[in-house]
Amino acid sequence: MEQSPDASQAATEQDQKVAAWPYLLVFFVICAIIAAGTIHHSRGINEATRTAALTQLDTVADLQAQGIGNWLAERHADAEVIASNGLLADAVERWLAGASNTVSDAAMNDWLKSFLVRHDYQAVCLLDAAGTLRMAIPSEAGDLPTATRQLAQRVLQTGTVDWTDLVVGGERPAPHMDIVAPLVARRDDGSTRTVGAVVLCISPERFLYPMLLKWPVATRTGESVLARREGNHVVFLNRLRRRAGDPIGLRLPIEQSALPSAQFFRGIGKTVEGRDYHGVPVLAAIRPVPLTSWIIVCKQDIREVRAAEARYRMLVYLLVGVLVSGLGAGLGGLWLHQRALLFRQRLREVQLRAQAEALLAESRQMFADVLNAIPQRVFWKDRDSRYLGCNMPFARDAGLDDPAQIIGKDDRDLGWFATADLYRADDRAIMESGQPLFGYEEPQSHPDGSLTWLRTSKMPLRDAAGRIIGILGTYEDITDRRRMEEERARLAAELERKNRELEQILYMASHDLRSPLVNVEGFSRELLRSIRALQEQLETVHLPQDRRSRLDELLGRDIPEALRFIRTSIGQMDRLLSGFLRVARLGRSPLEIGEVNMDEVASRALEGLEFVIKKLGVAVERSPLPPCRGDAGQLAQVMTNLLDNAIKYLDPDRPGKVALFGRCDGPECVYCVEDNGIGIDCDDQKRIFDLFCRLSPADRQGEGVGLAIVQIILSRLGGRVWVESVRGQGSKFFFALPAP
Amino acid sequence: MQQGETTIVLAEDDDGHAALFERNLRRAGLRNPLVRLHDGQQVLDYFCGCGPDPHWKPGDKALLLLDISMPRVDGFSVLERLRRDQRLADLPVIMITSSDDPDEARRCADLGGQGCLRKPVPCRDLARVVRQLGITLCCPEDSTFDD
Question: Residue B15: phi, psi to the nearest 5?
Answer without folding.
Answer: -65, -35
